[in-house]
From TrEMBL:
Name the UniProt record assigns to this protein: Type II secretion system F family protein
TM annotation in the entry: 6-30, 79-100, 106-124, 244-269, 281-301
Lineage of the organism: Bacteria, Bacillati, Actinomycetota, Actinomycetes, Streptosporangiales
Residue ranges annotated for the Type II secretion system protein GspF domain, each copy included: 142-266
Cell division among keywords: no
Subcellular location: Cell membrane
């Protein structure tokens, strides 16, 4: 049986497509194998990616880069160390340019420092929120661990179950602890690392209970149930205090916005007034004293509204 020309061309095209796909898949496999081999050799770290990858690797090798990487991981941000620093540098440069258009160059430099401080303040705020979210999940975590151990499961398996059942950030943090246990890290060290990543009084009590129970034994189920009920009560108290202090927190932010808004309004009402004022020593002193008072008021309100439970 003879085939027509269109049928032959169709078969050839399909064969060629399969061959190209197979060659491409084979090449991808070789490339993945080469990358895995390169990752095991410290001398080939720089061949893994482009300039951004090499820059990120170089930053992570420094003490500052390691500390910043830990803070970024604790905050839950999906961002590279190099990208974070690049955004901070770009924001500082923009502040120097914009503030330098309104005021003396000295205030542009101060504004750049303020932008850099704002980046780290934002990072710290993200860390604090993530830690608070994890603390709010601790009663559920204690109950899951209690139910799992009451069912006869070992604590390692109970942690894996809790990592699967709970949402973020507990899902991510417990997943890291479970991975560390799978790689051979001791239970005590893995729990200590968890407490160091998210330092809090509540987590410290839970970790200490688990560590002591793993060492000396005892009724872990009863202890976890007691901790769960206690943490639930502390969670409600924290929620009530946060609700009561909500007005003061809003006032804190309002004072900061009013301070910046007043400066912008002065320049809008009388263009060039800020540059003329900041160009003289008396104007610089007045602006400096005003900035100190605004900063001091923000600090005082923040300290008043911060209650440790």
């Amino acid at each position: 049986m003879s085939l027509s020309l269109p049928a032959i061309l169709l078969i050839l095209a399909a064969t060629l497509a399969v061959a190209v796909w197979a060659v491409g898949d084979l090449a991808t496999g070789f490339e993945r194998r080469r990358r895995l081999a390169a990752r095991s050799a410290l001398a080939e770290d720089r061949a893994l990616g482009g300039l951004r990858d090499r820059l990120d690797i170089a930053l992570r090798r420094t003490e500052f880069g390691k500390a910043l990487a830990r803070r970024i991981a604790a905050s839950g941000l999906r961002i590279r160390v190099s990208t974070f620093l690049l955004l901070m540098v770009v924001g500082s440069g923009a502040a120097i340019f914009l503030i330098g258009e309104w005021m003396a160059p000295l205030f542009g430099v101060l504004a750049a420092a303020g932008v850099a401080w704002s980046f780290f303040a934002f990072l710290g705020r993200r860390e604090e929120r993530r830690k608070e979210a994890f603390i709010a999940q601790l009663p559920d975590l204690a109950r899951v661990l209690s139910n799992a151990t009451n069912a006869g499961l070992v604590l390692r398996t109970a942690i894996e179950i809790a990592a699967d059942e709970l949402d973020d950030p507990a899902h991510t943090e417990l997943g890291r602890t479970a991975d560390a246990l799978r790689l051979g890290q001791s239970l005590e060290d893995a729990l200590r690392d968890l407490a160091e990543r998210l330092p809090s009084r509540e987590l410290g009590v839970l970790v200490s209970t688990l560590v002591v129970s793993s060492r000396a034994g005892g009724s872990l189920v009863t202890a976890l149930r007691t901790i769960a009920s206690t943490l639930e009560e502390r969670k409600e108290i924290r929620r009530e205090v946060k609700t009561i202090m909500g007005e003061a927190v809003v006032s804190n932010w309002a004072i900061g916005v009013l301070g910046l808004g007043s400066i912008v309004m002065v320049n809008l009402i009388q263009p060039g007034a800020l540059r003329a004022m900041s160009g003289h020593i008396i104007g610089q002193i007045i602006l400096g004293v005003a900035a100190i008072f605004f900063t001091l008021s923000l600090f005082i309100i923040r300290r008043i509204t911060r209650i440790d439970i």
